[in-house]
Design brief:
The chain is α/β, with parallel strands linked by helices. It is built from 14 helices and 26 strands. Strands 2-9-1-10-11-12 form a six-stranded parallel sheet, sandwiched between helices.
């Protein structure tokens, strides 16, 4: 009887005036701020759309943003924190991952029609978290005022209403029109939804904050709601980005840009898990460039072909754009190439898709830089993986459809454990020339010794890596983010809206 009458944890919802306004960063900051105050807090996002995902300790897949927020809250990630993940495979279709498992592909129209079937289960996931923790920080999706989607919304106001959540609306002043963002969002909402919003946080402010005081006063007078804070633009904090929008439309790199050694990452159309390379970006004396338009690669110490949510489409894109010829030429001239997951599959001789998992059934010729071939087929592999590279231990995770057969060369890694179960398997491939490598393991650069081993391999020995790398480095950034948030936001007022 006691557990039945136990009061569920309060919820604070972080919604946005649009996409990429900073909801994920604000939610991450709130998670670390509250856990530092001794409150057991957990993140929640009913539905996420991103090809940037990760693996829970149970070997299940969920959105990377909620894994980051769980790290900030100092708890293990769990699929209840992101029960529904959509991984775009085309402009109109996505793979649907439900409670950590791929359950099929769906068009936008088909998914819209099936939303109601998911809503009840996602509500149950939130309720379980509310029974286990003392506060839930809910993140919305896109704009919370998409009037055409609102009747079937399962991630913004309907979920906030289910939870009785207090809503903080985030607006991005850097995009311009912040007054219209806030007032326009309210105008698109019925009065009942407007009343759920307790106040605003304005993100990415540049300049003298004193010059914006009149703007704050105008917003508060116009809306009769509190501006909780204005977050200045920062350069001293690094938090993993939720979506690849942050690396869209990268420019070509020229000799004039390269004052230090550089590594290129090919930004394929369906790039996944681009945050794999954040630890490399943090190394002093070396630069990482995401490049999209074909260019000569001899400027770079190494080239990385990253993960992809649609290997066949992106392989065809490499050929159509001329990237395939550039990569083969670079390899033939002695360049170093690393393929990860989908990039590993593309480096092989063939990619077979007999069941049409990624489109029309058939076989596509790869770049033939590794002596492997891949068959795309279910079930999907999702594992937390421990491995070794010539005696050096590392940890990462695998998320891929299909199996890859090596018919020459050597394996790259020895897999020691998957999802906590000891094993002895081979992963990846080393080309006979020792310069082209491929692996299924994401997150391998989170281990400093593995990063150092790869840098030595490509001729960049002597690079200085701090031992504060990977999760240890991220943890320090979460504390910096919480300090920054507390400095610029009226957290006491937010406490009041949560009932103290």
């Amino acid at each position: 009887m006691e557990s039945r009458n136990k009061k569920k944890a309060p919820c604070l919802a972080v919604f946005g005036t649009g996409s990429d306004v900073g909801k994920s960063i604000v939610a991450t900051a709130i998670c670390r701020f509250f856990v530092n105050k001794g409150i057991r807090v957990a993140p929640f996002k009913a539905q996420n759309m991103s090809n940037n995902s990760g693996i829970t300790p149970e070997g299940l897949e969920m959105g990377r943003a909620q894994i980051v927020q769980a790290e900030a809250a100092r708890i293990p990630p769990h699929v209840d924190m992101n029960p529904l993940l959509l991984k775009p495979t085309s402009d109109v279709g996505s793979q649907v991952v439900f409670f950590g498992k791929a359950v099929g592909n769906s068009t936008a129209v088909g998914y819209h029609e099936a939303k109601e079937q998911f809503f009840a289960r996602t509500c149950e996931a939130l309720d379980r978290l509310r029974d286990k923790y003392e506060l839930i920080v809910m993140e919305g999706a896109g704009s919370c005022a998409e009037v055409n989607l609102m009747p079937h919304d399962i991630v913004n106001f309907r979920m906030a209403e289910h939870a009785g959540a207090s809503v903080v609306l985030v607006a991005d002043i850097h995009k311009g029109g912040v007054f219209a963002q806030i007032v326009g969002t309210l105008e698109c909402l019925p009065e009942s939804r407007q009343n759920q919003i307790s106040g605003f946080i304005i993100n990415r402010f540049r300049g003298d904050i004193h010059l914006f005081k009149e703007g704050i006063a105008w917003i508060e007078q116009k809306t009769k709601k509190k501006v909780f804070g204005v977050l200045p633009w920062y350069h001293h904090i690094t938090i993993e980005a939720e979506d690849s929008v942050v690396i869209e439309n990268p420019a070509r790199v020229s000799d004039n840009d390269l004052n230090t050694p550089a590594i290129a990452v090919i930004r394929v159309p369906h790039i996944s898990n681009f945050t794999d390379f954040d630890p490399l970006s943090a190394i002093d004396g070396m630069n990482i460039y995401f490049i999209e338009k074909p260019q000569e690669l001899n400027l770079f110490k190494a080239v990385i072909l990253p993960g992809s949510k649609n290997t066949c489409f992106d392989l065809n894109w490499l050929k159509k754009t001329g990237w395939a010829d550039k990569l083969v030429s670079y390899a033939n001239k002695g360049g170093y190439i690393l393929g990860i997951c989908g990039g590993y599959q593309m480096l092989g001789k063939y990619v077979h898709d007999p069941e049409g998992i990624e489109g029309r059934p058939g076989t596509m010729q790869g770049l033939s830089l590794l002596p492997v071939e891949t068959i795309l087929k279910a079930p999907k592999t999702t594992t937390l993986t421990r491995f070794s590279w010539q005696g050096i231990s590392g940890a990462g995770y695998e998320i891929h459809m299909g199996q890859t057969l090596r018919f020459a060369g050597k394996s790259l890694f020895r897999v020691l454990e998957q999802n906590g179960i000891s094993c002895d398997k081979e992963d990846g491939c080393i080309a006979p020339n020792d310069r082209v490598l491929g692996t299924y393991i994401h997150g391998l650069f989170d281990t400093p010794d593995i990063t150092r081993r790869w840098l030595n391999h490509i001729g960049l020995s002597g690079m200085e890596l701090t031992e504060s790398h990977g999760l240890a480095a991220r943890d320090k950034e979460y504390d910096l983010l919480a300090e920054y948030f507390e400095k610029h936001v009226d957290t006491e007022k937010i406490f009041e809206y949560l009932g103290g």
